[in-house]
Here is the input.
Amino acid sequence: DIFTDRKMIFEMHYEQIDEWKKIAPHMKMIYIMPNDKTIPFDMTKERNLSPEKEKERLDDIKHQYDMIENDLSFRNKFDKILYNDYTDEFVKKLIEELNNMEA
Here is the structure.
């Protein structure tokens, strides 16, 4: 499916970007950053993960945010960075951005 001209949406871990870009260099990447970074941490804690898994996930979230904020080479892997305020308006904006992206 990634070799078609159809627009499709995938969610992927940031460590997979380079591999996907090798396979499909035409792919567009959007990073969705929360306006309030405490929300993903709180949501992760609500998932009732094992203490080890929760710590691993929280560390990964922190690492991701540090990279997107401080590592220009990482930021440049994305065609766009959108800031999510967890509202219906953001969903509309995301859909609009996706519809306007060239395949």
Strands lie at 30-34, 80-84.
